[in-house]
Amino acid sequence: MLPLPNMWRNNRKIGFDDRLMALIMIPLTSFLVPVVFFGMRFQGVPLYTVRNFWTTLLITTALWLGNRYIMIWSRTRYPVFKDIRRRMIVQSLLMLVFTLAITNSLGSVLHDYCGLTDPAIYPGRNLADIIINSNSAALFCVLAVGAIYESKYFINELRKSVEEKEMLKRESLKAQLNALKTQVNPHFLFNNLNTLSSIIPEDPKKATEFVQQLSRVYRHILEVRDERSIPLNEELDVLKAYAFLLKTRFGNNLDISINVPDEKRNKKIVPLSLQILMENAIKHNIVSSDKPLKVEVFAENGRLVVSNTLQKKNQITESTGIGLDNIRNRCRLLGSGQVVVTENETNFMVSIPLIEN
Fold it and tell me: What is the pTM of this model?
């Protein structure tokens, strides 16, 4: 059981801070019980006296604190939701026994002090009537106040459950976003190291500039790895650096066009999405002098579109779709809208939702 000095500090098991409620309700209940259940009046017989109030106050306080302690103990003993039926049965039985025991034991000691058995003060009532009235008053008050406590407790537990679920949902989304973002770095670095290795033997000077631009792009990856969204203007600036890396390798065989009006550049976008789509275009399509690849980046209907001419490579293994799925999942988790993929005989287009600031 819980130590008695901790009763009033253990509001977590009660569900709310009930000190003000007790300070108001105990005296108010003690004042009303003699009037409602015993028919006492301030003028006439039976006369409401100070003795009646103090007697009722003593019994009410004992019942309130005792039953409150029973609720704390039972909620500590049966804390999980699956045991709620057992808890309510045990708690109700203990409260019933305690209420009847305190009411009758204290009542038997104090009824002479109140004069309830004196026919001159309380005419027309015998001891049996007084016992019935006392127990009825005690049970009614305990039932009413217990219902208040249980209602507040269940509301508080429901609120905590909802908050915990929302917290878990946010943490889950955060974990999923982090997991998705960890896919980007290896994917990006692997492809560009392959590009660099092919340039070094051909033109070391350009390879040096390539490394500088690669450093700029990779620095951007490190800076935005913890961001859920970034300004479109920043993403486009880095895309130009990445386009330089690709143009260095493919020359005139690759035509990259970026045409986004200034008024759209204050929107936000999922980080690194444009680089992933540019990588995919190179990875899955032929880029040669016979078949130059054209990639266009433009804004349309509140979205950013990345379009490339469709000239698929004959690949032995099918694409895993990791890059595109990565963008889809991050947009979905952010609630920014769906990624729309359109393919026809000549073009492959990916439309990404832009996020309002």
Answer: 0.49
Segment 193-223, tens digit of pLDDT: 887 887 788 888 878 888 888 888 878 877 8
Integer CA distances (angstroms), 115 to 151, 186, 222, in order: 38, 89, 85
- The total number of structural domains that make up the chain: 2
Structural tokens at position 90: 């045990």
Same domain, 8 and 155: yes
What's the chain's Rg over C-alpha atoms? 39
190 part of a folded domain: no
Q: Decide if 306 contacts 352 (C-beta within 8 A).
A: yes
H or E stretch at 232 = helix 232-250
* CA–CA separation, 195 and 294 (whole Å): 19
Q: Which CATH number goes with the domain that contains 264?
A: 3.30.565
Six token digits for residue 230: 């970034």
Pairing of strands 254-259, 293-300: parallel
From residue 319, how far is each of 77, 262, 325 by CA, in Å? 57, 35, 11
CA-to-CA separations, 275 to 133, 225, 262, 271, in angstroms, rounded: 82, 14, 20, 9
CB atoms within 10 A of CB 306: 22
Prior bond to 46 cis, omega within 30? yes
Q: How high is the pLDDT of residue 158?
A: 84
Angle formed at CA 100 by CA 3 and CA 127, multiple of 5 degrees: 140
Q: Is the residue at 83 inside a domain?
A: yes
